[in-house]
Design a protein that fits this description.
This protein has 178 residues and is an alpha+beta fold. It folds into two domains: 88 residues, Orthogonal Bundle (Arc Repressor Mutant, subunit A); 80 residues, no CATH class. Helices cover 62% and strands 12% of the residues. The chain has seven helices and six strands; from the N terminus they run ααβααββαββαβα. The strands form two sheets. The protein has a three-stranded antiparallel sheet. A three-stranded antiparallel sheet has the order 5-4-6. Helix 1 packs antiparallel against helix 2 and helix 3 packs across helix 4. The protein is elongated and about 70 Å long.
Amino acid sequence: MVEDLETSLFLEYAKRRISFEYDNEETGELAVKILRTLIERNEAIPDETLALILGTSATEIRRILHVMHKTGLVGLARESVDQYRYEYKWFLNKDFIRKFLSQHINKVTTKLMHRINTLSSTTLYICPTCFRGYTLDEAYEYDFRCPRDDTELMQIDTPSEIAFLSNIIKNLRGEETE
């Protein structure tokens, strides 16, 4: 399967997120296999069917699907089988991926804008060893030395940092509109 940029970014994010969630790289790889199957089939699929396709236990598939649903990586549809039974099917499509990436880009952009606002209104210092940041008041309080490793704190070059972050935001917004 040839993947476009959106799909590969989405799959990489999913792999890292699920691997981190379970502290297990193999679980992240299984999540990517599940997502690829959903993308290739382009239809809602029950977890039992996914388990058969991937040759993995339905319990393991379900466990990963629920975490992916909770984090917004997959959608879930409930379909009536008969008067008393329902079947739950998992889905993913290109619009879903675009929407997810757009939301994720907006979250990152918001955080970067907050950082720019902080840089614009406050003098910040950083420890060159552990990279922990401190406000001017905190730097005074610690006598301009890092309380963790006693390294001398350095003032952040605010104009360069703001330009760097602004460039990242511009690039993210440019990617989003393509």
